[in-house]
Design goal:
- This protein is an alpha/beta fold.
- It has two domains: 182 residues, Rossmann fold (3-Layer(aba) Sandwich), CATH 3.40.50; 69 residues, no CATH class.
- The protein has ten helices and ten strands.
- A six-stranded mixed sheet has the order 6-7-8-3-9-10, with helices on both faces.
- Helix 3 packs across helix 4 and helix 4 crosses helix 5.
Length: 260
């Protein structure tokens, strides 16, 4: 479903992402973690066709994001970290707009909007202007818009930021459900407890390089840790806060470099 093949992105002399190779198959809920500035946002922008890789390849459902961006984006539902809405549209008008852009016919649009309205409990405020929405209301509306066309790939960037406990539970249940239904879910988050709770596999990027790819138990084995939360393991791997890579990070990079 999702494939990065030695994908890299530079901005001048700054290497934001270096030789990233990973694949997320259908039905997997994949968590992408890393410190601030590690390359997570650049990776996501390459995935959703907002940035072209400087080298390497990114593909979605077999469509190259550079050669076939229209076909690739049609496979994706994207929930960015900052919800972008049109203030002078109501929530319903926004969903109508997105559904029409996705090519849904009128009868189908109505049915899909009703479905997502019920799923995300939007009914009470759907006909209000989006400029009146709280952050949580905006986030729920953006999730609804991302799922209108039933995409086989769902990309979410920091989905829990600013959500109340009820909305956060709704989103976690939704991500689990979508993965169980065969959707490939690519989730970037700083909320390590969420990744620990719902992700099947974890990828950790540090200074532009993938330094770990696997399950939490595999991460514990790699770091020779018999126990510990994902937060403890993450900090050990990235040595976040001391301004230098940890020995585990250096060893992992050497292993990744050797194996291509």
């Amino acid at each position: 479903m999702i494939r990065f093949d030695r994908a890299a992105r530079s901005f001048g002399t700054k290497k934001a992402v270096v030789d990233l190779s990973l694949a997320v198959p259908p039905g997997e809920l994949f968590a992408f973690l890393g410190p601030n500035g590690a390359g997570k946002t650049t990776t996501i922008k390459m995935l959703v066709c907002l940035l072209r890789p400087t080298s390497g390849q990114v593909s979605v459902c077999g469509y190259d994001t550079v050669r076939s961006p229209r076909e690739a984006t049609q496979q994706i539902g994207y929930v960015p970290e900052e919800a972008f809405l049109y203030d002078k549209l109501s929530g319903r008008e926004f969903l109508e707009f997105v559904a029409e852009m996705r090519g849904l016919q009128r009868r189908e649009r109505r049915a899909r909007i009703e479905r997502e309205t019920e799923r995300f409990e939007l009914g009470e405020f759907l006909d209000d202007l989006t400029e009146t929405y709280s952050h949580g209301m905006k986030q729920r509306l953006v999730f609804a818009s991302a799922l209108l066309h039933d995409p086989p790939v769902l990309v979410v960037d920091e989905p829990m930021v600013g959500l109340d406990p009820k909305s956060a539970r709704l989103v976690k249940d939704l991500l689990r459900h979508r993965a169980a239904q065969g959707t490939a879910v690519f989730m970037s988050t700083h909320t390590l407890s969420v990744a620990e709770e719902i992700a099947g596999r974890i990828g950790i990027i540090d200074q532009g390089r993938l330094v770990f790819l696997g399950t939490q138990s595999e991460l514990q084995q790699e770091l020779a840790a018999s126990e510990g939360s994902l937060e403890q393991l993450f900090l050990q791997l990235t040595a976040e806060g001391n301004g230098r890579p940890s020995r585990a990070t250096e060893n992992r990079r050497a292993c990744v470099d050797r194996n291509g």
